[in-house]
Specification:
26 strands; 429 residues; binds uridine-diphosphate-N-acetylglucosamine; UDP-n-acetylglucosamine1-carboxyvinyl-transferase, Chain; alpha/beta
Length: 429
Amino acid sequence: MDRIRIVGGRRLNGTIPISGAKNATLPLMIASLLTDQTLILDNVPRLADVALLERILGNHGVDIMVSGKRAGETADHGQTLHISAANIVDTTAPYNLVSRMRASFWVLAPLVARMGEARVSLPGGCAIGTRPVDLLIMAMERLGAQIDVDAGYVVARAPHGLKGAEIVFPKVTVGGTHTAIMAASIADGTTVIDNAAREPEIADVADCLNKMGARIAGAGTSRIVIEGVAKLGAARHAVLPDRIETGTYAMAVAMAGGDILLQNARPELLQAALDVLQRTGVTVTPTNQGIRIARNGNALNPVEVTTAPFPAFPTDLQAQLMALMTRANGTSHIVETVFENRFMHVQELVRLGARIQLTGERATIEGVERLKGAPVMATDLRASVSLVIAALAAEGETIVNRVYHLDRGFERLEDKLGRCGAAVERLSG
Ligand code: UD1
């Protein structure tokens, strides 16, 4: 298993290109199941989760072709995928694939909407809490699907097609909103979704669906109205930049010090996180090429932050902010309201010398003078990158084990940080 070795204490200077968003790419690829025409996606990141979803879609009979590099393109350019679900040969998504990536459960919606049936394994437990799928199932039932649970599988049937309906989510859910939009796009009649997730990736997927011929209004707000159409067709769409990768590298620079351009980043996708960074004393400057983040030798101010659905501070940046606050000049508080038990990184940060106390969903972080490198274990995607951030400011060597978590969501992390002066290398095997 690969590990990452980091020697702390180097400042970061230069440019980090921001990749296409993982959390938009996955539902966009899944949306290809809604049509027998080809969907072309540009700016697709090279991530383990994308490769796994290619396998899952392949199992349903979807053909995916990756375009060759064009002249002048480097690894910094995203991939272009040509995805064709002309022939769906199997409507079952098996446990061994779905259990490895929760978002693959979302194939349920387009499969039932287009094929009238789907059999998708329940995703199972996860390192960050129970993460149920009850609201996704509720949405499908509202649209007329008959749902049974059989031997660990959700079996959904709508032999006469889905029907538009009113769906009110009692809790904001990204996956619930994605699946409701996809299914409603080719349902018969109008669907209204209330208390929809407003994450930018929802609007990006709706944008693509509209290019395919869907009639979706209000995506990006909490009320979305969808006029079902009979069929969707071909389209070409470029994935929006990854706001979580952007925020992660912004915090890495804040931690290490230096001056970095986050190329292609868009400030409006993570304003709440940029506001928090400014409160810590970091300089944030939007430019026409991206966002510049700079910190000279000044101390970091502590902050009070509560995670919540977009446009608030994202749960997917909580672990990274906590790593940063371990070095603040004072005591910070972070409250996690989106996922229960999303504090797996705390014990690992403590191994590096952090002082953190947990009381329920509230973490109290007392800034320390110094962190010291140690072997640590990655537990989930965002937790593992928080260890990398801490390591950038730790004295001596940190080895991050179980790097496959990082590879799920961060493209060439060691390369991007290394080119800006960090002492970071991947140890294979
Ligand atoms: C998506 C993101 C993930 C991010 C999360 C919250 C992708 C691929 N993943 O995950 O990176 O951390 O949004 O911003 O886009 N819930 C239920 N019942 C359900 C569904 C969800 O109770 O049926 C709860 C969850 O346990 C959680 C909350 O709702 O407490 C939000 O989850 P949700 O927004 O659905 O997260 P995901 O879509 O899984």
